[in-house]
Amino acid sequence: MITLNGLQFQEYISEKELLHAIDEVAVAINRDFKGKQPVFLVVLNGAYKFATELLSRFEGDCEIEFIKMSSYDGTASTGQVQTHIPLEADLEEREVVVIEDIVDSGNTIEKITQMMVTAGVNKYRIASLFFKPGSYTKEYKIHYVGLEIPSDFIVGYGLDYNGLGRNLNAIYKLKTTKMTNLVLFGPPGAGKGTQASFLKEKYNLIHISTGDVFRYNIKNATELGTLAKSYIDKGQLVPDTVTIDMLSAEVDKTPDANGFIFDGFPRTTAQAEALDALLEEKGTQVAAMIALEVDDEILVKRLLERGKTSGRKDDADEAVIRNRIKVYYDETAILKGYYQKQDKYYGVDGVGEINEITTRLSSVIDKL
Ligand code: IMP
Ligand code: MG
Known about the structure:
The protein is an alpha/beta fold. The protein has two domains: about 1-175, Rossmann fold; about 180-365, P-loop containing nucleotide triphosphate hydrolases (Rossmann fold, 3-Layer(aba) Sandwich). About 40% of the residues lie in helices and about 25% in strands. It contains eleven helices and 15 strands. It has helices spanning about 15-30, 50-55, 105-120, 190-205, 210-220, 225-235, 240-255, 270-280, 295-310, 320-340, 355-365; strands at about 1-5, 5-15, 40-45, 65-75, 75-85, 95-105, 125-130, 145-150, 155, 170-175, 180-185, 205-210, 260-265, 285-295, 345-350. It has a six-stranded mixed β-sheet, with helices on both faces. Strands 12-13-11-14-15 form a five-stranded parallel β-sheet, with helices on both faces. A four-stranded antiparallel β-sheet has the order 1-2-10-9. α6 packs antiparallel against α7 and α9 (about 295-310) packs across α10 (about 320-340). The longest helix has 24 residues, at about 320-340. The protein starts with a strand and ends with a helix. The model has no long low-confidence stretch (mean pLDDT about 95). It is an enzyme of class 2 (transferase). Its main location: cytoplasm. It is found in: Cytoplasm.
C-alpha cells in the first residue's frame, strides 16, 4: 500500500502484466503500420511511459510528436478538457497513431478526434493503455486497448493523482474501505446519545458529536478552534468550511476505524454535500442516515420527566420543548429527502425498551 497526497492506494496491476499488454498492442500496431512511417502523437503527461515502452517496440520508421491535455482534478473528471501544449506539427495527409494513457469519459478523445479532422490527416488510430468502458460516454472507436478496467481511479505508470504517482512502475488503485459511516438523527429526548454509545461499542465505530468536537477544539485552542471561537464571540455562525475541516481532522485521527457515527451534523443540504465530499476524499461514503422516530407527546413527557430530575432549564418548559422538537423536524425534513434520494434513509421506531431499540438499529446496520 502507498499514500499519495494523503490518499491510500493498493497495488492493482503489476509491471509484468502491463508490459504484456503493451507487447500485444505493439504487435497489432506493427502489423497495421508496416512500412507506413506513421506519426505517433503522444498525449502528455500521462502517456509518456506507455509511449516509451510502445515505441521501443515499433519496428519501422516513425516520427514522434507531443500535445499536452488535462481533464482531471483530484480523482474525478472535470468534464472540461484543457489543452496546455497544442498540436504544432503539420499532420496533413499523415497516418497518425494517438497514444493515450487512459480513456475514461472519452471527452479527451473527442477533442483529439476533432483535432485530427481539423489537421486533415489521412488516417488516425487511437492507442490507449487503459480503457474504462463503464465510464465511456462516446461512440469513437478506440482501436488499440492495452487493458480494459473497471471505473476505479488508478495511478502509476504515467498516471497521476494531483501530480504524484506517475513514476510508479505498477498500477495502484484507490483504496475504498468499506466503512459503516452513519448519520444519526433523533429529536430531543429520543435517546440518541444512549443508542449512539451502544452502537459505538457493538460495531466498533467512532462517535463524532459535533458539539464535542467544537468544545474540544476551542478548549485546546487549536487553529480551527480559535477560528471557530472568533465567529462565536462575534455572535456569528461558524462557517461550514471550518466545521468540516474540524470533522476532517477528527476522521483523520482514526483512519482505520470501522466507521463513524456523525451526530449533530449535517444540519443543512450544503453540509450534507460537504460531508459527502469529505468522505469521498477519504475513499469512503455515508452508509446510512438513521433517524429515531418518537411521537411528539411521548417526547414531551420524557423531557419533562428528565427536567424534574436533571434540573436542565430547557427540559422544564413545555413550550420550549415543543419548539425544540419543531426545529428538529424543520431541519431534518430536508436532510431526510436528501438521503432518501440516495436510498440511504432509515427511520427506526424509537419507542420501547433501550435494548429493543438497539436491536432495531442493529438490524438496519447489519444489512448495510
Ligand atoms: P477522459 O477525457 O474522461 O476520457 O479522461 C482522460 C484523461 O483523464 C486521461 O488522459 C487521464 O489524464 C485522466 N484520467 C482518467 N481516469 C484516470 C484515472 O483513473 N487515474 C488518473 N487519471 C485518469
Ligand atoms: Mg491522458
